[in-house]
Design goal:
Elements: H1 6-21, H2 26-42, H3 47-68, H4 72-106, H5 121-136, H6 146-154, H7 167-170, H8 173-176, H9 181-213, H10 222-253, H11 271-277, H12 280-291, H13 301-319, H14 323-347, H15 352-371, H16 375-386, H17 393-399, H18 410-416, H19 420-427, H20 432-455
Length: 466
Amino acid sequence: MLFSSLVFIFFYLPLLIFFYYIFKKRSIKNLILLTFSLFFYSWGEPIYLFLMLLSISSNYLIAIFLDKHRSNFNKHMMLLAVAFNVGFLFYFKYFNFFITNINNIFSLKIEFNEVMLPIGISFYTFQILSYVIDVYRKKVEPQKNILNLAMYVSLFPQLIAGPIVRYETVENEIVNRSENLDDFLAGFKRFIIGLGKKVLIANNMALIADTIMSNDISRMSSLWLWIGIVAYSFQIFFDFSGYSDMAIGLGKMFGFNFLENFNYPYIAKNITDFWRRWHISLSTWFRDYLYIPMGGNKVSQFKWYRNIFVVWLITGLWHGASWNFVIWGLYFGTILILEKYFIIKILQLIPNFFSHFYSIILIIIGWVIFRLEDMSLVFTYLKGMFFINKNESLYFYMENLNITNSFIYFIPAIILSTPLIKNIIDKNKENQFFILLYNTSLIFIFLMCIAKLLTSSYNPFIYFRF
């Protein structure tokens, strides 16, 4: 079930709000949230609900054991806990990829049944892992109520596409949060903003990107190739940041305060800065649970670069079981190493425009690798972008007039990729007329989204696959 679906907006969410707010007792509210969250997850693939419950119950027992038996033996238990969770993720996300490559590399014919990928497994596995590790590190107390732990892991706003919410962020709010009308309305407004990003901008960018990138790339003009990948760059940003906005807003409606997941990444002046702004919950997760435990930058220069390389190899794999994701991760890992070695020093000496241009070009190249699983197509696409040709430009335009209506959405995509609107809102938050205009605009955006959802079934969501 998508947040940007009529079923969610007019059936699931109103029912949840009704049952949640008619009770005052916290334990009942948590039970309602848990029940609705499990229903939300099982909507598309009920069988995978049992896998998530198995993961929750296993880690519930592991965390309690780690807390009670703090000894040298406990380190081995912690390693087994990590191996269990990583193995769980490996089997369901990477088994097919692993066996297929073993067969190809060694010319074998190992027969296997393909394993289906459960929705959101990467997100909830990382949340559970962070909880268990933090219990081991004594950063948090183990949750003694398994229903509360299950609610934390399965909480529907962040379940299938993040942000990755750490237990320490919501530990107190699980039993001590408070709800009020102001927070509820603020959360609903944030939800509308995210819905607008997803339905009005991301979906229109997706139409352009999918139409162009599903055609014969080798016969496409440079202009159309650039339009296609720029549209995809906006699609993936507004798709994911819009979903994060909706998740943060929904959390606030029920008393939870999730951390921000995006901070205008396309205004970054270098790639290091970009990854401080993009998918913040994932970047900080890898920093705290992989990069720093490996030594971070408190080691020799060689080991420091090795640590960055390993983290980005795994970051690429986290996004998908395909070689293009591996190469995408190594691509950014290499750039980050080069930036730390000398590029940042150069960028600090040149005007901001050029450093920004440098970042955008490298980000766009990265999205080409990310979008196209076939590496031969990646090279063809990049060659077509940077070696100008005029192949069939007019022919393609005439054959795909339907996408030209979506071009107008490049304007709000560009504007909303910057903090311009946010700054205007912050400067006028005490202006009553401006607040009225702002709230009216949100109502208009909401109605536009509903009209779009009623008239179109095109509603792709990139991060479902992760």
